[in-house]
Amino acid sequence: MSETESDEPLLSMEDVEVHFKPGGVIEKALSEEIVRAVDGISLEVEEEDIVALVGESGCGKTTLGKAAIGLQRPTGGSIKYRGQNIWKAKDRSSDAKISKDEIQQALQIIHQDPGSALNSSRRVRATLADPLKRWRKELGPDERLETIYHFLEYVGMTPVEDYAERFPHQLSGGEQQRVVLGRALLTNPDLVLADEAVSALDVSLRVEMMDLLLELQDMFGTSFVFVSHDLANARYLTKKSDGRIAVMYLGDIVEIGDPDELIENPTHPYTKVLRWSTPPADPDVASETMHMQPPVRRIDIPDPADPPEGCKFHTRCEHAREVCKQEDPDLYDADGTDAKCFRALDNHEYWHSEELTDREELGFTSSLDEEEPADD
Ligand SMILES: Nc1ncnc2c1ncn2[C@@H]1O[C@H](COP(=O)(O)OP(=O)(O)OP(=O)(O)O)[C@@H](O)[C@H]1O
């Protein structure tokens, strides 16, 4: 962990934007083609915190995660590690109080595919020696090997002497992911981005791996940003760690908060869609929900290079009204979560705004419509 004493949050992101321009396209066309992968997100991650980013493919989870750990330069806003602007440090600005190396050591990543993250011609021992040679130069060969054995034990790979000598192809997928996790933790990081780190594993191994992450969080005090398209995994991990789920849609966080509140009592209509698409553990309930229509007006996701004006979800939202076409909501306090939806506010012109009329044209009938609150 960093030795730096600071009252600042471990990581703070303010109004972060990552806008991509597709390569090779002439300048004139670029303004039309820009993909707003992350579109003005503010988020803090504290010590020993877990934030799970969930949402459909392409909503910006990985880009936000990479921006958080300094692997993706934002096109707008600021990202600070313990109060130090990451990119000022990376650009070796003379007033940076925390160095680029210290930040790099503190912010690590575990990728989805452990097979490609490991060099097939190197033994586990050699793979794990690399970060130690780089970040803990004070260790001699014997101490280094001892540290490697300790970490193999932490990640449940015993007998350690046996696993240390194996090549990646002599390990199962779950064991490979444990080596990747051990390698990330060897630098004693403050924050690890786990990018779909359990998705490639069999269902039974996913829970095992998430339990391991929680154990290691407890042991080392590491924080995690956990990227997942699966709400059930996000819930499992954040519920056990007092963490938060952040639901993303087209480059925005549309709802964030306590996992139980967010899943049992979602405020944002898109969170309801995600919940609908996550099969409940109970098979009886699962078969019931299979016959329900998805709580959306349209299934198709808008083009991220040309997102809708106003609230980006209004083209699919079953509760959308005229005002949602005009104005982009902020994140509002919504009892246990924060939601980027006017419906979180009792007194907003939304409630007097006209409903969008294409609902019937699309043949949609809603099972989730709610009463509007009475005027006080
Ligand atoms: N290097 C890049 N250049 C151009 N566009 C990019 C780049 N990286 C990502 N994008 C685009 O940014 C958007 C967000 O991508 P991102 O990978 O962050 O989403 P995601 O939610 O992690 O998706 P998935 O679950 O499929 O990994 C997508 O439209 C993607 O095509």
UniProtKB/TrEMBL annotation:
<dbReference type="InterPro" id="IPR017871">
    <property type="entry name" value="ABC_transporter-like_CS"/>
</dbReference>
<dbReference type="GO" id="GO:0015833">
    <property type="term" value="P:peptide transport"/>
</dbReference>
<dbReference type="Pfam" id="PF08352">
    <property type="entry name" value="oligo_HPY"/>
</dbReference>
<dbReference type="GO" id="GO:0016887">
    <property type="term" value="F:ATP hydrolysis activity"/>
</dbReference>
<dbReference type="InterPro" id="IPR050319">
    <property type="entry name" value="ABC_transp_ATP-bind"/>
</dbReference>
<dbReference type="InterPro" id="IPR013563">
    <property type="entry name" value="Oligopep_ABC_C"/>
</dbReference>
<dbReference type="GO" id="GO:0005524">
    <property type="term" value="F:ATP binding"/>
</dbReference>
<comment type="similarity">
    <text>Belongs to the ABC transporter superfamily.</text>
</comment>
<dbReference type="Pfam" id="PF00005">
    <property type="entry name" value="ABC_tran"/>
</dbReference>
<feature type="domain" description="ABC transporter">
    <location>
        <begin position="11"/>
        <end position="275"/>
    </location>
</feature>
<feature type="region of interest" description="Disordered">
    <location>
        <begin position="353"/>
        <end position="376"/>
    </location>
</feature>
<dbReference type="InterPro" id="IPR003439">
    <property type="entry name" value="ABC_transporter-like_ATP-bd"/>
</dbReference>
<protein>
    <submittedName>
        <fullName>Oligopeptide/dipeptide ABC transporter, ATPase subunit</fullName>
    </submittedName>
</protein>
<keyword id="KW-0067">ATP-binding</keyword>
<keyword id="KW-0547">Nucleotide-binding</keyword>
<keyword id="KW-0813">Transport</keyword>
<dbReference type="GO" id="GO:0055085">
    <property type="term" value="P:transmembrane transport"/>
</dbReference>
<dbReference type="InterPro" id="IPR027417">
    <property type="entry name" value="P-loop_NTPase"/>
</dbReference>
<feature type="compositionally biased region" description="Basic and acidic residues">
    <location>
        <begin position="353"/>
        <end position="362"/>
    </location>
</feature>
<dbReference type="InterPro" id="IPR003593">
    <property type="entry name" value="AAA+_ATPase"/>
</dbReference>
